[in-house]
Amino acid sequence: MRYFLFSAALLVAAAVPQSSNLVVTPALAQDESGFQSFLAGLRGQAERQGISRRTLDSVIPTLSYNPRVIELDRAQPGGATNSPIPAFAPYKARHVDAARINRGRAKYQQLRGNLSRIERETGVPEAIMVAIYGHETNYGSYTGDFDLLRALASLAYEGRRRDLFTAEFLAALKMIDQGVPRGRLVGSWAGATGYPQFLPSIYLRLAKDGDGDGRKDIWTSESDALASIANYFVNAGWRPNVPWGVAVRVPARLDRNAIRSKLVSPRCARVHDRHSQWKTVAEWKALGVTPIGYPVPRDSELASLLEPDGAGQTAYLLTGNYRVILDYNCSNFYALSVGLLADEVAR
């Protein structure tokens, strides 16, 4: 769901059930009073953006402050630059495990007709779509049960990322104006929804009708969800017929300082800082970097080197398409696992 544009999966972080045994404390009562005043301001913004009175009248009176989403938001990693980065191998073992691979292969075969058509139209590989589906919601088995409008309004009220969550709240109201049933708008505590775990603004921009029924139903239609994932990747710059990357063995003699990147990413800087300079695959081979996976990008393809578990462990040469996966969720562990799961699903 989830670092996602602010990113999809940090957002998608676990869908934690909302407590029904809420104790109303004086502090909470004060928050509720302030929240209701804040809602009046949100309504004014919505009206100025052309959101219908019918939608506002049906939604605004139903909303109450949700302290649970604030707790979850504050508990998220802050990205402190001095905090240690854990090893990738345990994460990989949990997220590219036999169960997820086998379920992915079953989905791959079950949905092959639609997947192959979407790949022909977009150039996004079938297995990549399936791998995103698998990582985001374990192939639709969990999508979250938070009321998106209540959660987004509460997060906007809290104020830490007010502009972001206000925009997503207004986007969710626009979804209702466009005919999305109010009951569909459930998902993660941070506002991601449906099989692909899209934020409302992403749904409005990139959701697709994949089965030709005239609706963009990312909650119950796997065809729509997969077509929407592919459209996201196209929009983010996916290049057809280019592998995301490949596992490699790096010689002990490689001078890491000589290949250190001097670029500074405008977003997710710590994620991108772990990547080396760009070199062609042929240049990496000349330095003794040896592919041990498949498929191997062409020798002319530019790639960066990532050693997620340090020197002496499995490393990866990563193409520009890997950066597209990072756009979906700006986490090296997430993006590597999506690529590796896709490779296993396609075998």
UniProtKB/TrEMBL annotation:
Entry keyword set: Signal
Annotated Transglycosylase SLT domain ranges read 35-343
Any idea which GO molecular function terms this record carries? peptidoglycan lytic transglycosylase activity
Q: Which Gene3D superfamilies match?
A: 1.10.530.10, Bacterial muramidase
For this protein, the record's InterPro entries field holds: Lysozyme-like_dom_sf, MltB-like, MltB_2, SLT_2
Single Gene Ontology BP term? Answer: peptidoglycan catabolic process
Question: What's one Pfam family the UniProt record gives for this protein?
Answer: SLT_2
Question: Which chain regions cross the lipid bilayer?
Answer: none
As given in the record, the signal peptide range reads 1-29
State the name under which the record lists this protein: Lytic murein transglycosylase
* Organism name: Sphingomonas cavernae
